Amino acid sequence: MKIAIFWFRRDLRLEDNAGFSAALQSKYPVLPLFIFDQTILSQLEDQDDPRVTFIYETIQKMRSELEAAGSTLLAYYGKPTDIWKKLITDYEVAEVYTNHDYETYAIQRDDEIQTILKTHNIPLRTYKDQVIFEKREVLNGRNEPYTVFTPYSKKWKSQLTDKDLAAYNCNQYFTNLYAGKVDVLPTLADMGFVRSPLHIPSSEVDENTVVSYAKKRDYPALDATTHLGIHLRFGTASIRQLVTKARQWNEVWLNELIWREFFMMILANFPQVEKHAFKPAYDRIQWRNNPDEFQKWCDGQTGYPIVDAGMRQLNETGFMHNRVRMITASFLIKHLLIDWRWGEAYFARKLLDYELASNNGNWQWAAGSGCDAAPYFRVFNPALQTQKFDKSQAYIKKWVPEVGTKDYPDPIVEHESARERVLKAYKKALQS
């Protein structure tokens, strides 16, 4: 029997899924597939990585729902090229459907898979699903990608129509699912992981949080942000539904969703930013890269309470408040003169909501090296940031209970001298 395969990746939901909907409307029964990509998983350092547990449990849930509909979900662990060669042997595959991915590795992987499929005359059909506008869909007057957020966001909003937010129906086409069961489902142990106890926030959007977002989002003690990053990252929430709600409830929150698309557009059009500064001159900066100071930053032992609170929150929960992310990033780069790529890699390891484009874009923003970045001479003063956003120190005391006692370390660097040092280093690099 000829079948179509739908390959789930960063779109782990059975409803309002562009590629899945298209597959279900094809003339072939659809066999859903997920691959635990060994190439990606082998790079993870922590056996109890909570993101792997989250993906695994989501796949289990999706599989149960598909089994209730009389179908199943294939789940393999291995290298995608090897698995696709096996699938072509095991099944009479007529078509393959999936959704676009914009990261460098994903593009390379998909090119390799397409080459394999082409040798068997199997078409690979891909769809836009994780963003409203992608790649070169929002362009400036010169027909070029924007590199500044504000005009990009204005153009993004002016182009938006209700059609862009229309949901893709999947449930009504479940009758076209592949009928049958399979036992293929590796365990976490098979993949070298153990279950993480870390709590994953809900994918439900709280209206009160969004409505009050603009007023409360900068105050870390209030916990007044949505925590939806992980669900956007792995597609357990639909971007179309979130933008629909953002338009109704709060434009500031809508802008945050547009920032995510801005950085994904930057990565798609300027892939060099993954390893290099968007502004090449910033790759000439002579970083100190002191490993002992970096470790103290990672551990939340810098002697700067707001910085340490953020790092400890990250290490314990996989989340850090948005405002504090800027403060901790600025401190690592500007106060310690440590390469932003070190911090980016640590956040990539620890953040539940890690997403390459946004992580890279925000770290380069903090470093001054990115598109539409903060000016290089802007150096966050942790004391002033604390005074402004955590005046009662409620956030600090939650994560750094020993603050103000002899058990808390002295500052590892003095603010003014650190500021002078980094400005000198930046000026030297940018003038050379």
| Overall SS class | alpha/beta
Largest pleated sheet: 5 strands, parallel
N→C terminal distance: 66 Å
* Record field, number of beta strands: 5
> What is the level 1 CATH name of the largest domain?
Mainly Alpha
- Do you know the CATH architecture of the largest domain? Orthogonal Bundle
Arrangement of strands in the largest sheet: 3-2-1-4-5
CATH superfamily of the largest domain: DNA Cyclobutane Dipyrimidine Photolyase, subunit A, domain 3
Strand content: 5-15%
CATH topology of the largest domain: DNA Cyclobutane Dipyrimidine Photolyase, subunit A, domain 3
The number of domains is 3
Uncertain residue segments: none
Shape: globular
The whole-angstrom Rg is 23 Å
Helix content range:
40-55%
**DSSP helix count?**
19
Task: Provide the residue-averaged pLDDT.
Answer: 97
Order of helices and strands: EHEHHEHEHEHHHHHHHHHHHHHH
InterPro entries: Crypto/Photolyase_FAD-like_sf, Crypto/Photolyase_N_sf, Cryptochr/Photolyase_FAD-bd, Cryptochrome/DNA_photolyase_1, DNA_photolyase_1_CS_C, DNA_photolyase_N, Rossmann-like_a/b/a_fold
Keywords: Chromophore, FAD, Flavoprotein, Lyase
GO molecular function, one term: FAD binding
Protein name: Deoxyribodipyrimidine photo-lyase
